[in-house]
Design brief:
Glutathione S-transferase Yfyf (Class Pi), Chain A, domain 2; binds glutathione; mainly alpha; 13 helices; 6% strand; 59% helix; single chain; Glutaredoxin
């Protein structure tokens, strides 16, 4: 499913999207379009959720490390420049991994659910999804992205604080998981789809050593075939991106040229 290629620089305006939608309507394919980058943890979360439920979807790869595509994506699709985003049946562009999963629950109500129907279960799924995004994903990102900052601008205080916060988050999860199979209890939910990529990548910032329940959960969640599929599918992209620090800096807008441009256009 992945691999349609974006060619965003010149072709992803509303006209092209419109024709894609009409073509789909003609084929009577009921699918939504996911903009993603294959190495993004937030995209992995949505992919895992879609695979778990069997959601029909199409994909468009946005190569965030290609400055032209990145710029076109901001201009044409999502001004804040973040992936994933979803083009809905109504033609709206929906940002945020959690909202995308929520939308798909409403759009495809007959597929197995990742947000339980009972109000308590739903609240638990949302609560732990938020916990993972805010206190794992955002925190390890702070640590890992520090390496991408230009020479001399590293934030050692912020990184140490993030490491402490990540440790506290691990301890909370470790206690929570002592008597639960999944984050929201016995049902596998959206929160677990958030956790798989965050724990997987977060280990590069801080290991799970000393947190046995968390480690056992990590093995459980990342042992699911859907996670294996997400992770194995993106291998060629990981190999490509993993070594290209320069491209990663440019994608963040942290390369010298972009920083100089920003400084010039900043309000006095
Ligand atoms: N809260 C957002 C976070 C999205 C996000 O930060 N995506 C990263 C990739 S994992 C991104 O687009 N980074 C590019 C940038 O920050 O410009 C979500 O859950 O979708």
């Amino acid at each position: 499913m992945i691999g349609s290629g974006l060619g965003l620089a010149v072709t992803c305006g509303s006209e092209r999207l419109q024709s894609r939608r009409s073509a789909r309507a003609l084929r009577e394919v009921s699918a939504v379009l996911l903009y993603l980058h294959p190495v993004s943890s937030n995209c992995h979360k949505v992919l895992m959720a879609f695979y778990e439920r069997g959601v029909p979807f199409e994909t468009e790869i946005v190569d965030m490390f290609d400055v032209e595509q990145n710029t076109a994506y901001r201009r044409e699709i999502n001004p804040i420049g973040k992936i994933p985003a979803l083009r809905t049946d109504e033609g709206d562009v929906l940002p945020e991994s959690t909202l995308i999963i929520e939308y798909a629950e409403q759009r495809f109500p007959d597929l197995p659910r990742l947000i339980p129907e009972d109000p308590h279960g739903a609240l638990e799924a949302r609560r732990w999804d938020r916990f993972v995004d805010l206190y794992l994903n955002a925190t390890f990102s702070k640590i890992l992205q520090d390496n991408l900052r230009p020479e001399g601008t590293q934030d050692s205080f912020g990184v140490a604080e993030a490491r402490r916060r990540l440790g506290r988050s691990y301890a909370i999860l470790d206690a929570h998981l002592a008597d639960r199979q999944w984050l929201a209890g016995n049902a596998f939910t959206m929160a677990d789809c958030a956790a798989a990529p965050s724990l997987h990548l977060g280990q590069r910032a801080l290991s799970h050593e000393g947190f046995p329940n968390l480690q056992a959960y990590y093995e459980r969640v990342c042992g699911r075939p859907t996670w294996q599929r997400v992770w194995n599918d993106n291998l060629p992209w990981r190999e490509k991106v993993g070594v290209d620090l320069k491209a990663m800096r440019a994608a963040m807008g942290w390369d010298e040229a972009t920083l100089a441009e920003d400084a010039e256009s900043a309000p006095a």
